[in-house]
Amino acid sequence: MEGQVPKKRGRKPKPKEDKDQQQPPQGKMKEAKRGQHAASVDEKYTQWKSLVPVLYDWLANHNLVWPSLSCRWGPQLEQATYKNRQRLYLSEQARSRSFTDGSVPNTLVIANCEVVKPRVAAAEHISQFNEEARSPFVKKYKTIIHPGEVNRIRELPQNSRIVATHTDGPDVLIWDVETQPNRHAVLGASNSRPDLVRKHIKVVMFAYLSSLWNILTGHQDNAEFALAMCPTEPFVLSGGKDKSVVLWSIQDHITSSASDPAGGKSPGSGGGSIIKRDANDKAVDGPTVGPRGIYQGHDDTVEDVAFSPSSAQEFCSVGDDSCLILWDARVGTSPVIKVEKAQNADLHSVDWSPHDSNFILTGSADNSVCMFDRRSLTSNGVGSHVHKFEGHKAAVLCVQWCPDKSSVFGSSAEDGILNIWDYEQIGKETDAKAAGAPAGLFFQHAGHRDKVVDFHWNTHDPWTIVSVSDDCETSGGGGTLQIWRMSDLLYRPEEELLEELQNFKTHVSKCTAKN
C-alpha cells in the first residue's frame, strides 16, 4: 500500500514544517508563477477577512499541521445556553517526502467541537483569529492510528459512532470510534485495529487482521474516494479503480443499538462496543463475507457514490468516464440508467437530494455543477441537465445538498471557494444577478486559500458548515479547518426580516419615549 501512487485528488502531502525541498532549475519559472498566484490569493483573502463581521454569524478557524482530505460531523453530545458540543471526525494525512518509510502514521481524529448558537458571537470577535493557531472551539478527543491514508470518512446515519473510512488501498475499514483506544501519533506507532475490515481483494494486505475480523471481498483494485453510508439501512457502498460499484450490509455485524440510537448509551458515556463480539472479545464474523452485489457499468475509475434518500436498493455513481449511472439492486447488477457524457470532464462528486428523490447533483473537473432530474433521464443516451451551475474557476471536488432548505446546496473546488447555490433563484431578478453573479449563486465562502477538498452541513445546527482545505500549494503544507455559519440575514425570507426590523424599530421608539 505504501508504494501506491494515488490519483491527483489523493496526492501525497507534506507538513507545514517541510519547506526546504530543493527546486530544480527548470522549476524556477513555475515557482515564480506560483508566487504571483499566492500574492493574488492573499489579496483576496485579506478582502474576505475584512468582510467576515458582516457576512457571518459565526466562524472558527483551526490550523492543521497535516493536510486533511475529509471532515464529517458526528453525534451531538450536549446542548447548552449559548453553544452545543458535538463530535467532529477529521483525517490527518501524515505521509510526506521526509517520511516515505511510513514511520509517521496517518490518523483518524475524533474531536469535540463547541458550536456557538446563532446570534451569540460578537461580530467584532469572529474575524480576530490567527491563521497559524488552533481554534479553542476544536479540541482533540481521540486519535486512531489509521492503516494507510484516510481519503474519505462516512458515518452510519443510524448511529454516527460507527464510521467507515477509505484508504489508499483496496480496503474499507469500519470503526466504532467510541470504543477505540486513544493512540499517540508518534514515529513508528503501530496501526489501530478496526472493528470490521471490508476487504476489496482476496489478498490479505494486513495479515494480522485476517484472523480477527471478517474480510469482505468485492473490488479487484484500489478504492480510494467513492464511499457512502445508506440513510435507511446499515448498508455501505463503494467504488474503485476496478470500475465497479460494490454494495455490502453490516447489519449482521452490529448490535441492535446501532439502528436504534435511543436504546444505546450516549456517545462518550463509556458503553461497550456496538460491534457484535464473542466471549473472547473478537468481532463476530466469518473469515470472508461476500458483498450483496457488484455492479458493472463504468468504463473508468468510480470517483463517488450516493444512496437514494428513500431506498437502500437504489443508488448512483459517477466516474472518470464522465458518466452518471443509476442502479437498482432489485433488478440486477446492470445500470438502470446510464447518462453518457453527463459533463464535459471527469466527475468527482455526486449527491442525491434528501428532500426530493428526483434531483441529483454532480460536480466535475470542467469547473461546473449539474443538477439532473431522473424523470427526464434516458438510458444509453446523453443526459440533459436541469441546470448547469458555473461559478468555479477550477475542478469541483465536492457537492452536497443543504439539509435546511430543499433548493440549496454547496459546492467546493480546487479554486479555494465554497459556493452556496439556490436553484429557486434562477430566473429571478436579484441584486446578485444584476451584479453579474452566476445564476443561482447567493453566497461564496472564500476563507480558504487552497483547494477545499471536503465540507459537511451540520444537521443539528442549521446552516452550519465544516470545511477543510489542503494548503500544500499556497503554504507549503498543512491544512485549514473552518466551521462557519453565514448571517441569517442572507437566507431568511424577506418578509420575516422586514417584520423583525419593524419590531426592533418599535422597540427602540418605546425605549426612547420612556427616556
From TrEMBL:
<keyword id="KW-0156">Chromatin regulator</keyword>
<dbReference type="InterPro" id="IPR015943">
    <property type="entry name" value="WD40/YVTN_repeat-like_dom_sf"/>
</dbReference>
<keyword id="KW-0677">Repeat</keyword>
<feature type="compositionally biased region" description="Basic and acidic residues">
    <location>
        <begin position="275"/>
        <end position="284"/>
    </location>
</feature>
<dbReference type="InterPro" id="IPR036322">
    <property type="entry name" value="WD40_repeat_dom_sf"/>
</dbReference>
<dbReference type="GO" id="GO:0006325">
    <property type="term" value="P:chromatin organization"/>
</dbReference>
<dbReference type="Pfam" id="PF00400">
    <property type="entry name" value="WD40"/>
</dbReference>
<protein>
    <recommendedName>
        <fullName>Histone-binding protein RBBP4-like N-terminal domain-containing protein</fullName>
    </recommendedName>
</protein>
<feature type="repeat" description="WD">
    <location>
        <begin position="389"/>
        <end position="424"/>
    </location>
</feature>
<feature type="region of interest" description="Disordered">
    <location>
        <begin position="257"/>
        <end position="293"/>
    </location>
</feature>
<feature type="repeat" description="WD">
    <location>
        <begin position="295"/>
        <end position="328"/>
    </location>
</feature>
<comment type="similarity">
    <text>Belongs to the WD repeat RBAP46/RBAP48/MSI1 family.</text>
</comment>
<feature type="region of interest" description="Disordered">
    <location>
        <begin position="1"/>
        <end position="40"/>
    </location>
</feature>
<feature type="compositionally biased region" description="Basic and acidic residues">
    <location>
        <begin position="28"/>
        <end position="40"/>
    </location>
</feature>
<keyword id="KW-0853">WD repeat</keyword>
<dbReference type="InterPro" id="IPR022052">
    <property type="entry name" value="Histone-bd_RBBP4-like_N"/>
</dbReference>
<feature type="domain" description="Histone-binding protein RBBP4-like N-terminal">
    <location>
        <begin position="43"/>
        <end position="116"/>
    </location>
</feature>
<dbReference type="InterPro" id="IPR050459">
    <property type="entry name" value="WD_repeat_RBAP46/RBAP48/MSI1"/>
</dbReference>
<dbReference type="InterPro" id="IPR001680">
    <property type="entry name" value="WD40_rpt"/>
</dbReference>
<feature type="compositionally biased region" description="Basic residues">
    <location>
        <begin position="1"/>
        <end position="14"/>
    </location>
</feature>
<dbReference type="Pfam" id="PF12265">
    <property type="entry name" value="CAF1C_H4-bd"/>
</dbReference>
